[in-house]
Every structure is written in C-alpha cells, then in structure tokens.
Prior knowledge:
Elements: H1 3-18, E1 32-34, H2 50-63, H3 65-69, H4 92-95, E2 112-114, E3 119-121, H5 123-132, H6 145-157, E4 166-168, H7 184-194, H8 196-199, E5 206-207, E6 217-219, H9 237-247, H10 261-272, H11 307-312, H12 316-331, H13 335-345
Helix pairs in contact: 2-6, 7-10, 9-10, 12-13
Bound molecules: heme C (HEC) (2 copies).
Protein name: C-type cytochrome
Pfam families: Cytochrom_C (PF00034), SoxA-TsdA_cyt-c (PF21342)
Keywords: Heme, Iron, Metal-binding, Signal
Amino acid sequence: MMKPRTTFTFLLAGLSALLGASPALAADTSMTVKLADHAVPDIEQLPPGHYKDLVQYGHALTTRTFAHIGPEVLNVGKRYAGNNLACASCHQQAATKPFAMPWTGVSATFPQYRGREDDISTVEERVNGCMERSMSGQPLPLDSREMKAFVTYISFLSRGIPVGATVEGAGMVQSKMPNRRADLEAGAKVYEAKCSVCHGPDGQGVRAGQPGDAQGYIFPPLWGNDTFNNGAGMNRLAMATRFVKHNMPQGTSFDAPQLTDDEAYDVSAYMLSKPRPVKANLEVDFPARWNKPVDSAFPPYLLGAPADQHRFGPFPPLVEKQRQMAEQLKAQGVAERAKAAEADRK
Ligand code: HEC
Ligand code: HEC
C-alpha cells in the first residue's frame, strides 16, 4: 500500500536532482507518511507460513495480552505481564490508531536514544519497557517466541516506511499544559460525567469474564492493583493528558477531541492521584538527570521544586528551569546530550 507513494516520491526526488535542485531532496527525510490516510496492512493478505503465523501471534498478543501472557494464564511460566490490560488498551486499534502511540513506522526509528536509560535502545528493550511499567510485569526473554512476535508485528505494521521518514500520527498530539496546578476536584467531576460510565465510579473498569479466567476487560481499570504502575509513561500527567484529550472517551479521534485542555488535564490528574502498583528501583531511571521529564513524579528531583509540582504541576516553570539547565550544558560543550534533553522535554 505504501509502495506506489514511496516510488513516486523517489522519482520526484530523482527528477529534481537531475534538474539541479538541492540534492537534499533525495534523502528519505523528505518523505511524510500521514497515518490517517495510510491503509493498515492486512494480515490476511500474507501467504501462509512462518511469517504470517508470527505476525498473527504478535497481533493476538497486542489485542489480548491478558489471554497469552497475563497474570491469570494457566501456564505459570508465561505470566510475564503483571496486570490484565492489553497493549491495545493504550496502543488502540491494535497499535494502528493515529496519535494513540501507534507502532506503524516505529521499526525505522530504532535503535534510538532514550533518556530513561541515557543509552541507545533497541525495539526489544522498548517492548520490555512497557512490559515492566505499562503492564506492571517482567521483561520478555529476548529469544522468546513472544518477543519475536511483537517485533515481527511492529515490523509488519512498519513496512514501506523508510528510516528518516516523518510519520504524521506517531506518538501523541503534542500540546501545552495549562500553567497551573491541576484541580483534582474539577477532575473528579469530569470523571463522573465523562468516564465513570465505562471505567466505573471506582476506576476498576468492567471485566469481560470472572477474576482468574484471563479474559481481560471490556473497559480497563484506570487505577488500583490491576493497571499500569507508577513508573509507566501513562503515569506522567502531561503524557496522560495528551492521551486522554485525543483518545477518550472511547471513540474520540485526534481531530475531534471531546474534552477541553483543562478538562483533560484535571481528569488525568484525578486518575493519577489514585493508588496504583509501585515499581521498584525507579531511582535508577534517567541516570543523566537533566533528561528526566518534569512530570516524572518520582524522586530524585533535580530542579529544587516540591515533589507535588512534578506530580500535579504547574509544569511550564519547571520546563523553563530545565531549558536553562540544557543551555548551561550546551555552554559546557555537552551539546549532544542537551539536544537529547530538549527532545525528551517536548
Ligand atoms: C498503560 C498504557 C500502555 C500500555 C498498556 C502499553 N503501552 Fe506501550 N507505550 C505507552 C506510552 C504512554 C508510550 C509512549 C511514551 C513513552 O515514551 O514512554 C508507549 C510506547 C511504546 C512503544 C514505542 C512507540 C514509539 O512511538 O516509539 C512501543 C514499541 C510499545 N509502547 C510497546 C508496548 C507493548 C508491546 C505493550 C504490551 C506488552 C505496551 N506497549 C503496552 C503506554 C502503554
Ligand atoms: C465509552 C466507554 C469509555 C469512556 C466513556 C471512557 N473510556 Fe477510557 N477506555 C475505554 C476503552 C474500551 C479503553 C481501552 C482502549 C481500547 O480498547 O481501544 C479505554 C482506555 C483508557 C485508558 C488507557 C488504558 C488504561 O486502563 O489505563 C485511559 C487512561 C482511559 N481510558 C482514560 C479515560 C478517561 C480519563 C475517560 C474520561 C474522560 C475515559 N477513559 C472515558 C472506554 C471508555
């Protein structure tokens, strides 16, 4: 599905190079893929065989994680995930929905620098990042069939998208946070009006079957024991606000949000103010402290602000402090690292 467009772009680039236009045009970086117009590759079109089997398993692991590697599966050795969510509880539509952290095109972006480890990370390590945090569980062994299936499924979704291409719809919609502390009471009201019908008044969601049957949820829990832990990306208020604003209530798409910025911010803060599983050893995250996002709400803190501000804002003053720190690093010649810090702060 991407092939004709890729070829066309390269033809154009080749033509302009012939005509003496900037050779920079010939680079893959000139290519933009708009996920909203990009056909989701169809697994059924694959010829039968090992590859199709693995892509299918990757798809199943993504949409029904709880049934294959969840904490209630019969095979105790496969209980890698610590909760009964699915990857697709957040990476919606089997990880193809624009601006719900889709995996389409992600293969071409790895290996990549990650501030959390201050190192270059592979896609396998990224999968395990979500296994240990979003899924509150254990890392998958690198040589397991499950890890191979995730990587193969991600690669299948990424077919035809070259290294360096811009993917419109990757990650989440970036937006500025309101410059104030989140209002938990206002958030509770938004929750009651717009979330509790599905996620329940107590945030525990609605099970598909009975506890213990590994059938997961119709509506996943937002807090309590069976959800993402405090080290997860979703536990960052800015991250949760962006996700909620452009994806919730269920059915919302990025181009027609149903919540205002203030509502998304307050309701996300309300959700994150509730108890959830605690990840051990979070203090070793972000070994290069200047890379630590200002809304990572666990110690140690670098900017001299109270812990509450990292949890509930206001964030713009913290972002400004961190920007100044990055400037100082640049002045000291640590420009590359400062650049990484800037990218991570967005
Ligand atoms: C509770 C929500 C949640 C769940 C469940 C979840 N993730 Fe994620 N995932 C995120 C968030 C948020 C990000 C991006 C933010 C970040 O960088 O921390 C992310 C990022 C990723 C990325 C990188 C995407 C990119 O654009 O570079 C991969 C790959 C990934 N997750 C894989 C998985 C897999 C595999 C599972 C299931 C085993 C999973 N995730 C479950 C929230 C979740
Ligand atoms: C109509 C039902 C519905 C409503 C209303 C709704 N959600 Fe969801 N929500 C879902 C479903 C279903 C999922 C799982 C995603 C999927 O399967 O596509 C989900 C997933 C989530 C997730 C990520 C998974 C997790 O368990 O953490 C968050 C966070 C979330 N919703 C927050 C909210 C907030 C906040 C509101 C209110 C503004 C809201 N939702 C309203 C149905 C709903």
